[in-house]
Amino acid sequence: MAITSALVLLAVCWFMTLFLVLPVVTRTQADAGTQVPGTHVSAPENFKVKRTAWIVTLIAVPIWLALVVIITMGWITLSDFDLFTRFGPPSPGGETGE
Known about the structure:
Blueprint: H1 3-25, H2 29-32, H3 49-72
Helix pairs in contact: 1-3
């Protein structure tokens, strides 16, 4: 796996984790019982970007490391997803998909 591929995979893992963590850690104004005039009730009450980024990073990095190990060890390859052999001939010793 090239360094660029690893960084792209890290970015994908980080943002996927961010979108899963945001609804959990964000406290809305409706939850707090206070609403600032001119804002929506579902707006965050006191959003802490740094805290959220640390939580997301602590969750995303182990997931990313597990995926990097799985990919570099060859446990999952591109031919595993090639059901109709459209990516070229099968690798030697690999399954043909039939």
